[in-house]
Amino acid sequence: MTHGERVADVSTPEHRTIIVVGGGPAGLAFAPVLGGWHPFFHASNVLQARYPQVADMFRQHSETLLTLDMESMLFRGIPPVDLFRVLHHPRQLYAGGDQIALEFRQQDPIDFLLLTQEPVGGLWNSVPENLLTLSPGQWMEFAFHSLAQHVEETGQSYDVNDLIIKQRLLDYYHRIPERFGVADRVREWTRVTKIEPHEAGFLVSAVDVSDWREKDPVTLRRPAFPQSEDELAGEVRQYTCKYLVYAVGQRCELRNLDVLGEDLPFVTQYYEKPVDFPGERIVVVGGGRSADWAATELHDAGRHVTYVMRQSQANHWGLINQSRGGLPYYARIAEILEGGSERLEAVYDTSIRQIAAVDGEARGVVTLSSGDTTRQIEVDHVLKEIGGSADYSLLQGFEQPLQLVEKHDNYRFQVHQARVHPHSYESIDIPNLYPGGYLAEGLGLVVIAMHGTTYAIAADILKKEGML
Ligand SMILES: Cc1cc2nc3c(=O)[nH]c(=O)nc-3n(C[C@H](O)[C@H](O)[C@H](O)COP(=O)(O)OP(=O)(O)OC[C@H]3O[C@@H](n4cnc5c(N)ncnc54)[C@H](O)[C@@H]3O)c2cc1C
Fold first, then answer.
1. Global pTM?
2. Residues with a CB atom less than 6 Å from ligand 1
3. Residue 375, Cβ neighbours under 10 Å: how many?
4. pLDDT tens profile 292-307
5. What percent of the chain has pLDDT over 90?
6. Given the CA of residue 163, which atom of ligand 1 is nearest to it?
């Protein structure tokens, strides 16, 4: 909490049984389920054909699947995230709603609140305008609402097995709270600043950041949500809760290059579309999928791009070759680089040493360094696509600090995950705290799993509350 915030009536915090922090795909999934939409087994021919043991196991199970003994399932070699993934996606392509071996029925809701500092949908609010997913659109859906159903209900028509473009995915996520009658449980533009121990469980301090709604990320030069160093002027509210789901995602704190000149006005951390980059010459710094996307799109919009990566050429081409078969934008970057375009220079094993201004601060000179050699290039813009990290610093004053383990995958996601009990995803260090989505230890960073922790967490809490 920084100086300047106005404190509301903090003597009587608002109490809720559960608070979910973060409204991205991981946190948003909780809203309908805690709102009472519980999963039941639905006989699916596809599941029966592909996973007969799983289908046989549940055929007689007439209660909600939240009543399952997740610990003994785990003991039998089926972690909850895998179980619900198989029930939801018994095959990778979607051929019809009947293949999903889950159906959702409205049961009693539990008291909860979801606090998030931007619109629901998480980081998808700030990705490039034309960004496509890495996977079929329906891999991004929640089991309780298929993308096909959403397409039908909203009178649209597109193939849910195609890669899905940002706005379509966001429309789907944005509609979830209303569609499932839980909009009054979701508070957007609310930034949680501190989570402390309290006799009720947790004391959560949060600031109204609705003034950030008006901020333009292009002029701000980063996504329009606050960072820890920002001074926040909004009203402070406090909440207590018995259980806390921590689903803040792996991009809360944007990374810095930590070089001189990084704050100059032609250096940005926000890429939405080429038109925001007038001028000719752009340095893109990064090497992950976001940087690949921006470098390709800027090149195709006629810019001259110097693409600076710390990684080796072999590493970069490993990902390109792995992805070019299935992802058209990887086929495109491969084509550009193999075709030797003069407007896309990929520079490997190189880092930015310094950024300096010329012509006032309208343009600049970037110093690149590779081994013993340095080189200077003139630029109109520098685009940093160097990712971010999960922020666990909100958790303060707990007897036992969270133990974190580092996790990465071939797709270059990298995140520190919190140690959890593998059947419930409850923190092993802080009882009743549940890291959501990829923040839970052991969650493979595969595109189909980011909300797979929902059911085991909801089940654990509802059991503790005697509601199952
Ligand atoms: C460019 C890019 C492309 C990707 N493409 C894919 C893909 O194609 N397929 C796929 O499955 N995955 C993809 N991913 C992985 C991505 O992480 C997931 O799609 C998903 O967004 C993760 O969901 P999440 O809810 O864990 O985190 P997020 O989406 O990051 O959501 C977390 C939310 O919590 C909010 N928050 C953080 N701190 C606070 C706080 N203190 N107070 C209140 N709110 C807070 C954040 O602002 C955010 O809205 C991609 C990631 C990136 C960066």
1. 0.96
2. 21-27, 115-118, 122-124, 127, 133-135, 140, 191-192, 225, 247-252, 289-290, 394, 437-438, 447, 450
3. 13
4. 999 999 999 999 999 9
5. 88
6. 8
**What phi and psi, each to the nearest 5 degrees, are found at residue 129?**
-55, -40
**Structural element, H or E, at residue 186:** strand 186-187
Under the banding of pLDDT at 50, 70 and 90, the label for residue 451 is confident
Q: Which residues of 430-461 are buried (b: 16+ CB within 10 A; e: fewer)?
A: bebbbbbbbbbbebebbebbbbbbbbbbbbbb
Give the residue, by CA position, lying nearest to ligand 1 atom 12: 447
| Average of per-residue pLDDT across 77-83 | 91
Mutate to test the pocket of ligand 1, among 123, 215, 384 (most ligand atoms within 8 A of CB): 123
On the question of pLDDT at 361 being above 90, the answer is no
Partner residues linked to 398 by β-bridges: none
Mutate to test the pocket of ligand 1, among 192, 248, 410, 439 (most ligand atoms within 8 A of CB): 248
Domains, the chain, ordered by start = 14-188+388-464 (3.50.50), 256-384 (3.50.50.60)
407 — pLDDT class (breaks 50, 70, 90): confident
